[in-house]
Write a structure and sequence with these properties.
Elements (H helix, E strand, L loop, with lengths): L8 H24 L3 H19 L5 H22 L4 H28 L3
Helix pairs in contact: 1-2, 1-4, 2-3, 3-4
């Protein structure tokens, strides 16, 4: 696949959900808690993963899915212990699940295409 060919739909969904996570964290930690360190710790990894996926790095999907497990765990923790931030935590949970499925979709397609 050349660099000028369009990205597959799963890659576009992955990039969009990672960018949505970055925007969520920018709102969450930049607005409610003006904390630059938290914004860097939470916002930088999905931004780097989105950039890597856009650049067609082979490991971008795997790294995104592994990090999404941490984002999912953080969302569960916050939804459980901080009722005032529960809405943001649920958005984080949903985006983490979308990242995992979008990152796994090419492998799932390849796996089940062999059975036909």
């Amino acid at each position: 696949m050349s660099a000028t060919s369009p990205l597959p739909p799963a890659k576009r969904i992955l990039i969009a959900s990672l960018i949505a996570l970055v925007l969520l964290y920018a709102f969450w930690f930049g607005h409610a808690h003006p904390d630059t360190v938290a914004l860097l710790v939470f916002g930088l990894p999905p931004a780097l993963c989105a950039f890597a996926a856009w650049r067609r790095a082979r490991t971008a999907g795997l790294l995104s899915a592994v990090l999404a497990l941490a984002w999912f765990s953080h969302g569960v923790l916050v939804a459980w212990i901080r009722p005032e931030e529960r809405g943001l935590a649920w958005i984080e949970l949903l985006l983490a699940v979308v990242v995992v499925f979008a990152a796994s979709l090419p492998g799932l397609r390849a796996r089940f295409a062999k059975r036909r």
